[in-house]
Amino acid sequence: MLSRMEFILKEPFEKVLENFDPLIKTMIRRYSYSLEFDESYQIGRIALWEAYERFDPDKGAFPAYAQRYLSGRFLQMLNRKCVTMIHAEERTLEDNYTFVVPYLDDLIVNDYLQNLSERERLYVDEIILKQGSMKELARIEGVSYETVRSWRKKALDKLRIKGTAMKKDK
Predict the structure, then answer these.
(1) Domain 97-169 class?
(2) What are the DSSP calls for 78-141, one per residue?
(3) pTM above threshold 0.70
(4) Residue ranges of the domains in the chain?
């Protein structure tokens, strides 16, 4: 008599897919709320196929292996989706702080920049005035992207304070 694991491996994949379809749908409900069902379902089916192909009966039961494998694949998918969203969000934030300043008088610019540190002035010059990339500035200066973001935050805070003070003076 064949054990349950041997029986599953002797079954054609179509039968295994039919038996594990509820597991795929459960994983979709658990992990894929931000994706379309069809895309998630296809990812689940492919993951089940990979689990079916890679399963080693000496290491445990197939149902537990399939569940872990599917769960891992859906988590990978969510991680990739999250990373993509974070990069898109950072790019949007960077675009919001990038604007063209073609006709500003040097005196006005210097008045705004006088309270900034050297790094903050570098950020304003390279990113805001010359419309450069924060990643490129980080690479050129040999610092992390997060460091350039801190320059941006400090510079913008100081520029806002200066702008508010200038409005009050009028």
Answers:
(1) mainly alpha
(2) HHHHHHHHHHHHHHHHHHHT-----S--HHHHHHHHTTS-HHHHHHIIIIIIS---HHHHHHHH
(3) no
(4) 4-87, 97-169
